[in-house]
Description:
This protein is α+β, with helices and mostly antiparallel strands and 348 residues long. The strands form 3 sheets. A 5-stranded antiparallel beta sheet has the order 1-2-3-5-4, sandwiched between helices. It has a two-stranded antiparallel sheet with strand order 6-9. It has 11 helices and 9 strands. The protein is 50% helix and 13% strand. It has 2 domains: 3-103, Phosphorylase Kinase, domain 1; 111-345, Alpha-Beta Complex (Aminoglycoside 3'-phosphotransferase, Chain: A, domain 2).
Amino acid sequence: MSSEENIREIALSLLRDCGVLSPGDRWQSLVLRPLPGDGSQRRFWRLFRKDRSLCLLCAPESPSEAGLREARATFFIGRHLQRKGCAVPGIFGWDASSGLVIFEDLGSSSLQSIVGSSHDTAFLKDLYREVVARLVHLQFRGVEDFDPDWCWQSTCYDKKLMLEGESRYFLEAFWKGLLHEQVPAAVEKECLLLADYAARAAANVFLHRDFQSRNIMVRGAEPCFIDYQGGRLGPPGYDLASLLIDPYVCLEQDFQEEIVAYYLQVAAEHIVDTQEFLQHYTFLALQRNLQIIGAFSFLFRIRKKEFFFQYIRPSLLSAARLLRQPACGEFLSLKRMIDLSLLRLNGL
């Protein structure tokens, strides 16, 4: 039996168990269409009956230990968030042996596609306000009764992850891998200092960790969050920064500042010291920015996904803006590296 035939049989059983399909339904009446996987190592399909979508299917490319752990995290974290009333898709089933997870289909309209096609600033601000209100719920309700055992990577966003999974990722995948440059010792010291500052933000909420416009689907006027399987405990400013410095949409600075102010308004019950939050936010945003540059460089150079190259420059420009802020005045070597990177990128 081929891999896809196996997926079909497992999906048929799961969908019958949850009532999406009746016991008499057969594959002859259904159509399974593959979907692009973006930067993921997973496979996706949309299941149709005639012209109506029934659900989305997701499975690892191969049933490796890591792929199965990721699928397990998807199921348990998703079920938890759903029970807490968070804006995530419904889950119809999960198969531990294959890693198959079956989701509610939210359609194809992402926040990125809406921002790219709309010139109505007032509409977009309202939409981002709704996203932020739902983010606050995700963070502060999602952390309640959250079991770190569900996590498939680390259980907490901490200094170790900042250094290994963000600043080092940037230096290895982008500076050394893409630009073929050696890392100055002064930059390594500044990355340690940055992580010291960012780690002062308490990891006391549920952290999505990839909270950007391609992972926010919009059905009607309802934003809903996908790809949360990398979730763990973390600081509240990180996901907000991910949303606002997102290179897929390149939000204007004043737009970003307005949404940060709205976030603090919505989260006022939970965040008392706004000045402390804003100070942490700058360092967390820079950490996230380095991770983005590293990820796009890796996906372009190693995974041969050329789509991501176009977003490296906007990511560098965002990092340059952050490094011009007074709070980042100690990171002079990192600032020079980013400025040089923008020049070097022209030659690629």
